Amino acid sequence: MWGISPQFTCCSYTTDWDLTDPTDPVGRLLFHVLAMVAEFEADLIRARTREGMAVARAKGRLRGKKPKLSAKQEAHLVELWRAGKHTSVELAELFNVARSTVYRAIQRAGEQTAPAK
């Protein structure tokens, strides 16, 4: 078939007609075709993902991550922050959340990140 005679050496596989040489015109064509197929597959995956998310959003199933604190907990956290008795680290440990969650809750309440004294 096409005059190919496979030859096995210690650590490589060679043929008389090598398609994998990127400097050869046929090799360049092969690499370009493989790159086009890979790009086409990636585009298909992106399109299917967008379609699936649109269907889930239409059905009301795509809501995102649930908040760590309820509205009541967040109000209590902001109240403790305004009192100035706890630091952000203490509040994070008290409510079992990260400091960034404490900062976001305070920011949503319209407060500065430093407690009033």
Explain how this protein is built:
By secondary structure, this protein is mainly alpha-helical. The protein has 2 domains: 13-59; 71-108. It is 56% helix and 3% strand. The protein has helices at 25-59, 71-83, 88-95, 99-108; strands at residues 7-8, 13-14. A two-stranded antiparallel sheet has the order 1-2. Strand 1 (7-8) and strand 2 (13-14) form a beta hairpin. The termini are far apart. The model has no long low-confidence stretch (mean pLDDT 83).
Helix content: 55-70%
Distance between the termini: 87 Å
Order of helices and strands: EEHHHH
Task: Give the biggest beta sheet.
Answer: 2 strands, antiparallel
How many individual β-strands? 2
Spatial strand sequence of the major β-sheet: 1-2
Radius of gyration: 30 Å
Tally of discrete structural domains? 2
Strand content: under 5%
Principal-axes geometry comes out as elongated
Coarse structural class: mainly alpha
**Can you give the mean pLDDT?**
83
